[in-house]
Design goal:
Blueprint (H helix, E strand, L loop, with lengths): L2 E5 L4 E5 L4 E8 L5 E3 L7 H6 L7 E2 L5 E3 L3 E3 L2 E3 L9 E3 L12 E5 L3 E8 L10 E10 L2 E10 L3 E2 L3 E2 L2 E2 L12 E3 L4 E3 L13 E2 L11 E2 H5 L4 H5 L4 E5 L6 E8 L4 E7 L3 E5 L22 E6 L14 E2 L5 E11 L1
Antiparallel strand pairs: 1-2, 2-3, 3-4, 5-15, 6-9, 7-8, 10-11, 11-12, 12-13, 13-27, 14-26, 16-25, 17-20, 17-22, 18-19, 18-21, 21-24, 22-23, 23-27, 24-25
Length: 330
């Protein structure tokens, strides 16, 4: 495994080749105290024995695909059901997060990693050739994913960070979230979008169009919130092109995160199932709601849903998605 450090002593980002992951982001609070604000591991052995997706690039199809497989041009693909036997999660057992990517460029402000991938079980079409580029400018980290295919394939490639802007492992309930999204995807017991999704966020705890304390949203008795003990839902972002997807704030520390993306959706997962004692930072992280995952993405279960935007890529086309994390102190 290779490790790449971007930035300097005031603001630093750590990239690992395993899963092409962002393993750490370190920044000051309003008093100048520097701390890790991204959940990560101390070393490769911990990442291999950990049970969480922490900052990895997940693919070829992140989030979930329901059991039963999907078809492309009349050919059926049935990836492994690695999510309690009910769904394929984040590309399955042999997905991109479990691969060692090749570092093709690295300096103090940029890193590019490459992956040539085929599913050894044949559950996903391939081969797929992917590159992820990380670029650091001041306190902004941009990641761009590009991929080409040798046969028609479905792609929804996602970075899976868990943020805790407090710089500790304290629950993220003291954070505040804003997401410009007028609709969301309600889910079933397997976390698969319902057949009549999307639903409007009006009058629900999934309305983050105004700044909302996470404690307030998570206290809701809405059936969708109770179903999985918190947030694990895709919010459909307003507009198109590169635009703001979220503002996450931690009022006590003054740390803030703005997310910009060209993706159509943002998966918000409040970390209610986190039980990963291998997590090394921030201090005390690894337990219930000690981080919030904000994943810019295409719609989950899209390969099985003709009513969702297509994620089909054919030979000669290039898949490309870009997301920027802008960190700041208020």
């Amino acid at each position: 495994m290779e490790s790449i450090l971007l930035g300097d002593s005031e603001f630093a980002v750590e990239i690992w080749s395993r899963g092409a992951c962002v393993n750490d982001v370190r920044m000051p609070d309003r008093t100048g105290r520097i701390a890790s604000i991204l959940l990560g591991y101390a070393g490769e052995a911990d990442r291999l024995r950990g049970n969480s997706y922490l900052g990895e690039i997940c693919g070829p199809v992140a989030n979930r695909i329901a059991a039963g497989g999907f078809a492309i041009d009349g050919q059926t693909f049935t990836p492994d059901l690695n999510d309690n036997g009910t769904a394929t999660l984040h590309g399955g057992e042999h997905g991109w997060s479990a691969q060692d990517w090749s570092v093709t460029h690295a300096d103090d402000h940029q890193a590019t990693l490459h992956l040539d991938w085929s599913d050894p079980a044949g559950g996903f079409p391939g081969p797929v050739h992917a590159d992820v580029e990380y670029r650091l400018h001041d306190w902004s980290l941009t990641h761009t994913v590009r991929a080409t295919v040798e046969a028609p394939a479905v792609l929804n490639v996602v970075s899976h960070p868990y943020f805790n802007l407090s710089g500790s492992g304290a629950p993220i309930t003291d954070h505040e979230l804003t997401v410009p999204a007028a609709a969301y995807l309600p889910v079933d017991e397997a976390c698969i979008p319902l057949s009549d999704a999307p639903w409007p966020v009006d009058g629900t705890p999934f309305d983050f169009r105004a700044p909302t304390p996470l404690a307030e949203a998570l206290a809701s008795t809405d059936p969708q919130m109770l179903l999985h003990g918190g947030l694990d839902h895709a919010l459909i972002l307003d507009g198109s092109g590169t635009r703001r997807a979220a503002l996450l704030r931690h009022p006590d520390s003054g740390r803030e995160l703005v997310i910009l993306t060209d993706c159509p959706a943002l998966q918000v997962y409040s970390g209610q199932y986190l039980t990963d004692q291998a997590i090394a930072h921030p201090a005390g992280a690894g337990g219930h709601m000690s981080g919030i995952a904000l994943e810019t993405e295409d719609f989950p279960d899209a390969p099985r849903r003709a009513d969702f935007p297509s994620i089909l890529i054919r030979p000669g086309q290039t898949y490309a998605r870009t997301t920027t994390w802008q960190f700041r102190v208020n």
